[in-house]
Amino acid sequence: MDTLLANNLTLGYGDSIIIDSLNIEIPKGKVTVLIGGNGCGKSTLLRSMARLLKPKSGEVVLDSKDISKMKTKEVAKKMAILPQSPTTPEGLTVHQLVKQGRYPYQGFTKRWSEQDENAVEKALKDTNLSELRDRTVDSLSGGQRQRAWIAMTLAQDTDTILLDEPTTYLDMTHQIDILDLLFDLNQDNGRTVVMVLHDINLACRYADHIIAVKDKSVFAQGKPEEVVNCELMQHVFEMNCEVRQDPLFGTPMCIPHGKGRCLIKQAQAEAQSQSQSIV
After folding, report:
1. Where is the ABC transporter domain (predicted)?
2. Beta-sheet strands, E only, within the chain
């Protein structure tokens, strides 16, 4: 299984530096989740790791090779990426989309094979989309559409999968559905999964390894129970909260401070009690 790491990685757009001299190593065969505030560089880092953004300095290393010096198809046979909110041409069917995942294996001398077809069928089966294969992607629900894109990445048959906010715009039911699918892919096939998530509680539930990004670098990384605490939430998200143990999974669960109906009712009850005591 391939090793993915970043050495002294600096990223940016124009004169703006987003990530500065960052060093990380992605645990093989584990689920890693990138967390951090909006604009901290999570998606930028993920794009660079997929060779979609050229570093200003430093390197991303895949299987002991500088990824910038590898051929595109060589990278695509080892690592697949699902960007945020991908779009498909109108009228494209689920089957046609999933077949796109086999492009690294096609060429002038290599045509569509039984191995390609088997990989597509397995991807459809693993994502429970076999019965929807002839439906157009744009006719699917949000959760089904996301499954179709994940099926395409699975058809690439890579050891490593990168996903940028795979649960964005999905309701809670479909968020859990997608994350359960990715969890099963990791557990059953040993695939390395790296994704950006905004929901800290879900990140803690599904991740083996968490990387918190702040101030252009890594603020903390490790197992969720080792790094997610009140201090991290304050420094990384500038948010006061309570961190307790999830009663179902035993993972960290963040309860943010803030206003809400319960606190308002409590304050009203206390005010009423004080008024009655004065009378």
Report:
1. 4-240
2. 4-13, 16-26, 31-35, 57-62, 65-66, 79-82, 160-164, 192-196, 209-214, 217-222, 241-245, 252-256
- Percent of all residues in the chain with a pLDDT value above 70, rounded to a whole number: 95
Helices 142-155, 114-126: crossing angle, 10 deg rounding: 150
Between CA 149 and CA 166 the distance in angstroms is 10
Specify whether the CB–CB gap between 243 and 232 falls below 8 A.
Answer: no
Which stretch of 31-40, 103-112, 131-140, 168-177 has the lowest confidence by average pLDDT?
103-112
Domain regions of the chain by residue span: 4-78+158-224
Sign of torsion over alpha carbons 114, 119, 123, 128: positive
CATH architecture group of domain 4-78+158-224 = 3-Layer(aba) Sandwich (3.40)
205 closest CA partner among 227, 178, 183: 183
Residue located via tokens 């997608």: 178
Give the SS3 label for residue 106. Answer: coil
Return the C-alpha torsion angle 78, 128, 83, 255, nearest 10.
-110
Give pLDDT tens digits for 223-247: 999 999 999 999 999 999 999 999 9
Tokens of 3: 């090793």
Which pair of tokens denotes residue 142?
Answer: 């949000």
